[in-house]
Design goal:
One of its GO terms (molecular function) is agmatinase activity. Keywords: Hydrolase, Metal-binding. This protein is of the alpha/beta class. Helix content is 32%, strand content 19%. The chain folds into two domains: 3-77; 82-387, Arginase, Chain A, CATH 3.40.800.10. It contains twelve helices and 17 strands. β14, α8 (273-276) and β15 (279-283) form a beta-alpha-beta unit.
């Protein structure tokens, strides 16, 4: 039975839950809830009309533990969607935050590739790098020289939704992608902006598709050394080399800007002219010119934006620990500046950061650069919020410092 809250938003009870004695239990996700009288009534009336109505407060609490999920997430939720991260990340929103909370998802998934370290194994490494940055940003005394201000009071919050459940032995790519799509829908239903940490670039297909369902005017800004537009062919779902083709085929109105491409691509699938009108490119060389900021400003122009970053967009000098390195790439400063251009010009509603691998040296530069980008996004959005609360960031002077 599909039910709704008092405002009319629809939801269904998560089929992964079962009654066990005096508890409601989602074994796959490791969630146990005391079967209180209100929850018992909700459970027992799940197949009975009229529809159950929830207050906004009750709905928020039940969505948080995924006892209720959007109807289009129900089938994929049957075996569980995500488990709590070993060390969940969080960042409280500042009182002056101007952007919605980020909903963090770990996606330890890749669809195969050459031997060696895999992107799916980088999720805990990126999480560890993020935890250090969030601890620093959360300090009330933290000062940003980029903003010339204390960013804490304007930072958008971060809520950790856990790591996608993936059984590498039994899950097909189709199953894993549908599970991730459903998980992103549950994050969106809570009013959070999805931020997915991969994993390989195939995770962007279900992620962007779910976000596009929520934001019909969505545009995608894609940083990558490669176009990722191999032909779909007979494949059952997207892989890291054709996820763009899958997204464009599924969403015929979606417009796309890829930045950082270089080299020779023997597998580029240039589809019909109608699809090509929706896709534009800036090569790695072009990304280092003033034209790049102008192109980004025209493309974003206040629209809802999904930001997807394959860290191999950086030159291997800076990020060698990737599966498909390509020389002639961007440097970290250029990438960060371009991401700031995206935030300044558009309305960032979702993102994914992918394709880092654990480094045998233990230094993990690719994962570190992904974490740096998350910090840059946080600071850029804090800067915009501070500017909207009485002037430019930087008006709070530092003792003994310049303005």
């Amino acid at each position: 039975m599909t039910s709704e809250n008092l405002a009319g938003a629809s939801w269904v009870l998560n089929p992964a839950f079962r009654v066990q004695g005096a508890e409601l239990v989602n074994q796959a996700e490791g969630v146990r809830l005391a079967l209180t009288p209100p929850l018992r009534e909700l459970w027992e009336r799940r197949d009975v009309a009229p529809a159950v109505q929830l207050t906004e407060e009750a709905e928020e609490a039940l969505r948080k533990v995924r006892l209720i999920v959007p109807p289009d997430a129900s089938a994929a939720a049957t075996g569980g969607l995500a488990r709590r991260a070993e060390a969940p990340l969080s960042l409280p929103p500042g009182a002056k935050a101007g952007a919605a909370v980020w909903g963090l998802i770990g996606a330890p998934l890749d669809m195969g590739g050459p031997p060696g370290p895999r992107p799916r194994d980088a999720v805990p490494v990126v999480r560890d790098a993020l935890s250090r940055r969030f601890r620093l940003l959360a300090q009330p005394s933290a000062w940003s020289w980029t903003l010339r201000a204390r960013p804490g009071e304007a930072l958008p919050g971060v809520v950790d939704h856990g790591d996608l459940l993936v059984d590498q032995r039994t899950d097909t790519g189709v199953v894993a992608h549908e599970r991730l799509r459903a998980l992103v829908h549950t994050v969106l239903a809570q009013g959070h902006r999805p931020m997915v940490i991969g994993g390989d670039h195939s995770v962007s297909y279900p992620t962007i598709s779910a976000v596009a369902d929520e934001h019909p005017a969505l545009r995608v800004v894609h940083f990558d050394a490669h176009a990722d537009r191999r032909a779909i062919g007979s494949s059952a779902t997207a892989d890291c080399g054709n996820f763009v083709s899958w997204v464009l085929a599924e969403h015929p109105r979606l417009e796309w800007l890829t930045i950082g491409v270089r080299g020779v691509d023997p597998h580029l699938d240039l589809a019909g002219s109608q699809q090509e009108e929706r896709v534009s490119y800036l090569t790695a060389d072009e990304a280092a010119t003033p034209r790049a900021a102008e192109k980004i400003a025209r493309f974003c122009a206040g629209r809802p934006i999904h930001l997807t970053v394959d860290i191999d967009v950086l030159d291997p000098t800076y990020a060698p620990d990737v599966v498909y390195p390509s020389y002639g790439g961007l440097d970290p400063e250029t990438l960060t500046a371009l991401v700031r251009n995206v935030i300044d010009a558009g309305r960032l509603v979702a993102g994914d950061l992918v394709e880092a691998c654990p480094a045998p040296t233990g230094r993990h530069p690719a994962a570190t650069h992904l974490a740096d980008l998350v910090e840059a996004v946080q600071l850029a959005e804090a800067g915009r919020a501070l500017a909207g609360h009485g002037g430019k960031p930087g008006t709070n002077a530092v003792a003994g410092g310049g303005s």
